[in-house]
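Think of the structure tokens as a kind of shorthand, similar to the way a musician reads notation: each symbol stands for something richer, in this case the local conformation of the backbone. In the example below we present two proteins back to back. Begin with the first one, reading the sequence and then the tokens, and try to describe in your own words what changes along the chain.
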Amino acid sequence: MADPQRAEEPVLITDAARSYEEELATRKRRYKIMMGMRIPCMVLAAVFYQIPWLAVTLLVLSIPLPWMAVLIANDRLPIKAEPVNRYQAERPQIEPRDHPVIEG
């Protein structure tokens, strides 16, 4: 038989943040993705050199990417919002019954 005090989800006992290593790995991944977007922009600008407005647009988009990547990589991650699952003990309730009314 299942234990009635066990919940479907574990009970949250701490509001601990992510470890430093996990946070750093996430920030590095974001940085690599943003810097990886710069190379295709520059290559596509070279491919579309015969369409000047497209080539210039791609180059202009690639200019602020390193700056934005550094800002995002150095920013701390937002605190993860999780629904709190707290332990709630089962309390036996008193049975409802008719109460005598005294009329005076």
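Once you have a description of the first chain, move to the second and do the same.
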Amino acid sequence: MTREEIIEKVNTLLAEEFEVEVSTLTPDANVKETLSLDSLSLVDLVALIQQTYQVKIPVSDLRQIQTFTDLYDYIESHLPAA
């Protein structure tokens, strides 16, 4: 899976799940602010990523994921080897 495919799929998933425009999901945008995440919806986000990519995001790693670029990087670097 290429980085572009990851970005496209993540943006589509998040736009649907959190009812935001894909155009608001810019690489430097803050994930929590852009998606209006509270602690409960943050759990939904993690579950969605885990379900879609088989990538586990421990709570300790969530603090490192601030922007969408951070999220894409995290998914890309933790994808199971094909």
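Compare your description with these statements about the second chain. Residues 14 and 45 are 8 Å apart (CA to CA).
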